Amino acid sequence: MNKNLIPQRESECVEEVIEGEIVLYAVNAEKAFYLNESSALIWQLIDGQRSIEQIESLLTDAYPEAVSLQEDLMDALEKMRTSGVVRL
Amino acid sequence: MRISAKGWRLAALGGNTVALEWGDQAAGQWVQRLIGSHPCAPNAVPEAVYRLHSHQNVPGFTVFAGTDCIYNGMEPEKGVHAVMEAMMQVWIRRCTDGLMLHAALLAKRGHGLLISGESGAGKSTLSAWLMLQGWTYHGDEQMYADANDMHWEGFVRPLCFKGEWAPLFPGMATQLASVEKVGGRSLVPAALLGQMVPPETAVRPGLMLFPTYREGGEFSLQRISAGQAAMQLVHSTLNGGNLKNRGVAQIAEIVRVCPGYELNYGHFDQLAPLMELLSFTVHESSQSVQA
């Protein structure tokens, strides 16, 4: 995945933050999706302006000891993309 | 209980009422079997009216929903089953301000235990077993959850078992005459499991359980996160199409106050840790209410 890509949230997504996790409801797809704490954090960093690289950099600063951060980020973004809640 | 020759009875769930009328004593007994354990509803204009009749001169049974005949045949239990399914559909369609869930509901000291799972997950079997442990039965299939004032209601229908159930509860083997069989399902009156009177209409949310039964399977009981519990409820919501964003906001309110657990089991003998958890939950909740 090209790290210069800028992830975009699908416009019609309603989110419920529940104890650090998020349940997303994609209005157009009429489906709900579950984001665990780390995916929820990534979701919250997707603002339509930050690139994947910038998101990774923010996460690395916040969690310098995380070992598989890049892999987790890419996995989460891919899941969000295939779920239809994020465009790349 | 004596049944009059003609009569009617109301049943409500989630604030929506249906009426069941009968035109003869035999039909009245079928109504009693179907909703005799459900709490009596306050007078209200019903959303649907069902009329049950036994044929007078020839064997047979007829059920009307309004002016539509939904059953006409020789097997009253099939007619009653048709009424039951129709009632549940009405409650789903008319429920626009709360969640109608595919779940069983039991309670103790006013604290509800929601049991949700796909068909065949063992909701009815676990409900029956919990009744024998002193829990009150509020339904094994469909319940209403109100996220505004945080109460739960169940449809206290006869327990509906798929497949062989009697060997699991050998104490009832002598009373099987009151069990109706419809299409491979057994409808077991709550009274057969010792619940002789209808329960209270509403209970407070206590705990949510998402069980999977596999014969001979390993036991596990694990707390799941609120987000995971929310997704389980999303999948259990029957009236999502009536609700804004499929009721996700209401579901979130419920999981914020009510813990969820995933249960895997293969035999009732494994369930001592579950009983310990439930006992603790009821006790703690009672303490916090008193405080």
Distance between the termini of chain A: 9 Å
Total beta strand runs of chain B = 16
Main sheet summary of chain A: 3 strands, antiparallel
Class by SSE composition of chain A: alpha+beta
The spatial strand order of the largest sheet of chain B comes to 1-2-3-4-5
Number of helices of chain A: 3
Whole-number count of domains of chain B: 2
- Cα gyration radius of chain B (Å): 19 Å
Reconstruct the topology from this structure:
The complex is a heterodimer of chains A (88) and B (291).
Chain A lengths: L7 E2 L3 E6 L2 E6 L4 E5 L1 H9 L6 H11 L6 H15 L2 E2 L1
Chain B lengths: L6 E7 L2 E7 L2 H11 L12 E7 L6 E5 L2 E6 L2 H19 L4 E10 L2 E6 L6 H10 L3 E4 L2 E5 L4 E4 L4 E4 L17 E3 L2 E4 L13 E12 L6 E5 L1 H11 L11 H10 L2 E6 L6 H19 L1
Parallel strand pairs in B: 2-3, 7-14, 14-16
Antiparallel strand pairs in B: 1-2, 3-4, 4-5, 6-7, 6-8, 6-9, 9-10, 10-14, 11-13, 12-13, 15-16
Descriptive overview:
- The complex is a heterodimer of chains A (88) and B (291).
- Helices cover 40% and strands 24% of the residues of chain A.
- Chain A has three helices and five strands.
- The relative contact order of chain A is 0.25.
- Chain B is α+β, with helices and mostly antiparallel strands.
- Chain B has helices at residues 25-35, 76-94, 123-132, 226-236, 248-257, 272-290, and strands at residues 7-13, 16-22, 48-54, 61-65, 68-73, 99-108, 111-116, 136-139, 142-146, 151-154, 159-162, 180-182, 185-188, 202-213, 220-224, 260-265.
- The longest helix of chain B is centred in the first third of the chain and has 19 residues, at 76-94.
- Classes of the chains: A alpha+beta (88), B alpha+beta (291).
- Chain A binds chain B through residues 14, 16, 18-19, 21-23, 25, 27, 30, 32, 34-36, and chain B through 225-228, 230-231, 234, 245-246, 248-249, 251-252, 255-256.
